[in-house]
Amino acid sequence: MTLGIRSFVALGDSFTEGLDDPAADHSGYRGWADRFAQRLAGQQPGLRYANLAVRGKLLGEVAGEQIPRAIAMGPDLVSIAAGGNDLLRPRTDPDQLAEIFDEAVRTLLLSGCRVLIFAGFDPRFPVLRLIRGKAAAYNMHLRGIADRYQCDVVDMWSMSVLHDPRAWSADRLHLAPDGHRRVALRACEVMGVPADEDWREPWPAAGATASRYAAWLAARRMDARWARVHAAPWVSRRLRGASSGDGVEPKRPELLPLHQ
């Protein structure tokens, strides 16, 4: 299935930029897309790779800013994962959001590239559960779009391995390194890229469990810390009309060989 994929461009927000999966040299973030590109390059020597994703981007911004740049590069494969930041906003209509996504995919396909769609994960943490219905409706649209245009799709909602808190970083919005690794392996499976690991591999057994009350108390303390350290700054940015991506440039803006 990977035959003929000599160039790959990744589009989206913080998920595809790679937060919170630090690069080994601490120069930035790695993430599922870098990991997938690395494995794809093992099958396609000389693979060229660009990553235009920027944290905080809304779907309309991905469509308006990143898609024209990707099309200009003429890649063989483009991945698009976007809409999660929109769903966090109270008034977002998943049906209208899907219309934007549909047009974005159609535009990419008309340029002649292959499109890999990502359907979002199942939000199960406290507070995030409030958008679960909208997220489910949006994902149904994304799967429908993938069917309509015969696109490849990575359905993260069905990845039960991501239900484990260890798949996520402390902010509960971004994958931890092992979460990114598993998503990259899932993408490999969808695209037919050989991998010597299985994304379904069970997590290591947890240690001795505390009493039910102690576990509940620890969870509430984590919730309080999350609200103070992560949720409050997010709300503050919304009130100020600011974004975590303001002033941030794509980490791989040019379509260049992965290994130079």
Any chance you could write out the topology, listing elements then pairs?
Layout: E1 7-12, H1 14-17, H2 31-43, E2 48-51, H3 59-73, E3 77-81, H4 84-87, H5 94-110, E4 114-119, H6 132-149, E5 152-155, H7 177-191, H8 212-240, E6 252-257
Helix pairs in contact: 2-7, 3-5, 5-6
Can you count the beta strands?
6
CATH architectural category: 3-Layer(aba) Sandwich
CATH class: Alpha Beta
Structural class: alpha/beta
Order of helices and strands: EHHEHEHHEHEHHE
Largest sheet, in brief, is: 6 strands, mixed
Q: What is the rounded Rg?
A: 18 Å
Estimate what percentage of residues fall within beta strands: 5-15%
What is the first-to-last residue Cα distance?
Answer: 25 Å
Q: How many domains is the backbone divided into? A: 1
CATH third-tier fold name: Rossmann fold
Shape: globular
Report mean pLDDT, rounded to a whole number. 88
Structural commentary:
With 260 residues, this protein is α/β, with parallel strands linked by helices. The chain has one domain: SGNH hydrolase (Rossmann fold). Helix content is 44%, strand content 12%. The protein is globular.
Structure keywords:
single chain, 260 residues, alpha/beta, Rossmann fold, 6-stranded mixed β-sheet, 8 helices
Summarize the structure.
By secondary structure, the protein is an alpha/beta fold. Helix content is 44%, strand content 12%. Strands 5-4-3-1-2-6 form a 6-stranded mixed beta sheet, sandwiched between helices.
